[in-house]
Give the backbone structure.
Amino acid sequence: MHEDNVIDVTEADAGNGILYENKFKSADALITNIRHLPIAVFSADCVPVLLLDAKAGVIAAAHSGWRGTVRGIVGKTAGRMIQKYGCDPENIIAAIGPSIQEDCFEVGDDVAEIFMRKFGAETVVKYGERRHVSMQRAIVGQLTELGIPHGNIDDCGICTACNTDIFYSHRKMGNERGNQGAFIELI
Ligand SMILES: [Zn+2]
């Protein structure tokens, strides 16, 4: 929904959005500590982020578009794992999936200004006269700010917009496209 609502998922939600219509009114991230209950996010340029604390037995899946990134959805999700589920930031590992990268993510000055202000100059890069932003760097910042070690974060660095032969990209394909799915399950 491009907002910042984090949903705690339990057995009662099994099949939601897959076997029957999605009953979550607004969800951009899911968290669960229930085993054998896979959770997923779908995206096509927005950033899918999977989080795991194997010690505490907690997983999360977040969808971070530029609006969600600005609202800090990934930091909010990891923060909830720490506060509500008792995860130790040192034990949380994160995977940042294929998504539109800085090279293809040209934005208007208004969006560039917001990233600059919230996440620092390193998230905004000039390509000639145009400004591009790196959602991925902003997300890494949200995670490290919580004490999650840099070495626990794997950013695959793959650009969906540069690789439309194998990925869907909203910017490149418009609405005539599918979605990537990112799944995680505690076993
Ligand atoms: Zn690209």
Remarks:
- The chain has a mean pLDDT of 95.
- The chain has one domain: 6-17+25-99+135-184.
- The helical segments are 66-70, 73-83, 109-119, 135-145, 170-173.
- The CA atoms of residues 9 and 63 lie 15 Å apart.
